[in-house]
Amino acid sequence: MSSAFSLAGKTALVTGAGSGIGQSISSRFAAAGAFVWVADVDATGGHATVAGIRQTGGAAEFLKLDVCNEADFAAAFARVPVVDVLVCNAGIGHVGTVLTTTPADLERIFSVNVHGVFRTMRTWMPGMVERGRGSVVMTASTAGLGGLVDRFAYATSKHAVVGMARSAALDVARTGVRVNCICPGRVETPFVRSRINEYPDPAAAYREMASTQAQGRMGQPEEIAAAALFLASDDASFVTGAALAVDGGWTAGMFPQK
Ligand SMILES: NC(=O)c1ccc[n+]([C@@H]2O[C@H](COP(=O)([O-])OP(=O)(O)OC[C@H]3O[C@@H](n4cnc5c(N)ncnc54)[C@H](O)[C@@H]3O)[C@@H](O)[C@H]2O)c1
Q: C-alpha distances in angstroms, 29 versus 19, 194, 225?
């Protein structure tokens, strides 16, 4: 028995794969033997992910996919009808309180973070159920496990992602298909770096964000990819409906620790 988690012979599709966590998941999956469809609305980032994977001997192809666009899903499904591992990772952030967030803001965030995940599941899960096997992994957030100040739309959307993972897992629990989500803490990606650079003192903002995690540091995309690989692999055969916190201990304590 091999000791490393393997995706040999499997086809994976990762949304939001042109940057950050999705890029890292794609590379890790390819290194574990999967053929990876690198799906993103951003072709430049997507092609960069594919090039990185091919450079290290992996197999991947770019797939243009805006998770807000039904027509893109039709075209993507025509090209890629069979998927064994589906990673619903595409997501966007938003800063604002319940008082400053507009209905349009909420709709935009939900369109990507919630409806985008749902559209992705609706496209490829029926085939998984028909074949009696498959693993769906979503990227939720610690903001899906508890409220966050000044992130009203984002945290609300990520609570919905956790709810979708749990509910979908139950709906298909006896079919051989598993559904789980990962709840990352703060991870150093372009998404987080752009937020940090908006602060008047980015270095102080970085230290502040790092210190929220019990381990006192931010996570790296590779650490989220490692958890995604486990959930995607057959080694997680009895894991479904889980919301796995990969957050340096952020959500382990109920109260601030200092
Ligand atoms: N970085 C963190 O600290 C952190 C923490 C918790 C959860 N997350 C979640 O992880 C996921 C990835 O975040 P990241 O930090 O890697 O961000 P990122 O901005 O680095 O990458 C996101 C990718 O998603 C793509 N994308 C955006 N909208 C899309 C759309 N409509 N259709 C298809 N692709 C789209 C972007 O082009 C980009 O390539 C998101 O769901 C995010 O909410 C991130």
A: 15, 26, 8
